Amino acid sequence: MSYAIVGFGKIGQALAHAFARKNINVAVASRRPPEALAPQAEAIGPTVVAMSLREALEADTIFLAVPFGEHREVAKALPNWKGKTVIDATNALVPPEELDGLPSSAFVAKAFAGARFVKGFNHLIAATLAADPVVEGGHRVVFLSSDDEDAVAPVAALAKQLGFAPVKLGKLNEGGALVHARGRVWGQLIFQDLFKKEQ
């Protein structure tokens, strides 16, 4: 399984730290050329490799960590997203009427036709997401939701591999609604820093 993070701002870098901590290879890409990202990527760890967007999108699993309004540009980079898993870590700071009455993730998913689409890793602020998720005998929780049940299991397994405790919240219009930002109104679980104790 290969991984990429598209978007290398605060959230993209926080995710890269999570991969580096576990020595898992991950490509990082943004609108900037890879040579502009390389010094920061190398500073995070040797398993974090800056690539062009085209190269990064060859990965099996892609974290979407761009500003919400840029998701369509990323989606246009591939003619077909079949066979790809897209993990939506964005938050929509836009008026709800701009989302056609949909949860933000369902709105974003429309642009990635054919992809297995999972909402996740979006409810923690960057500094928290970048920190070691193993805290006081427990694991920091990440929420996952998807309309494709089969897509959630491998993302949950990746979350565990990265040291997080995945909690499945159901479909995008159910669980997704709990963690997506609607304009400036926050979902009930967004920015909640929760822990799951070892069993």
UniProtKB/TrEMBL annotation:
Gene3D superfamilies for this protein: NAD(P)-binding Rossmann-like Domain
InterPro entries per UniProt: NAD(P)-bd_dom_sf, P5C_Rdtase_cat_N, STEAP_metalloreductase
Keywords on record: Oxidoreductase
Keyword Oxidoreductase among UniProt keywords: yes
The Pyrroline-5-carboxylate reductase catalytic N-terminal domain, residue ranges: 3-91
The UniProt record lists the keyword Oxidoreductase: yes
Organism superkingdom: Bacteria
Protein name according to UniProt: NAD(P)-binding domain-containing protein
Protein's organism: Mesorhizobium humile
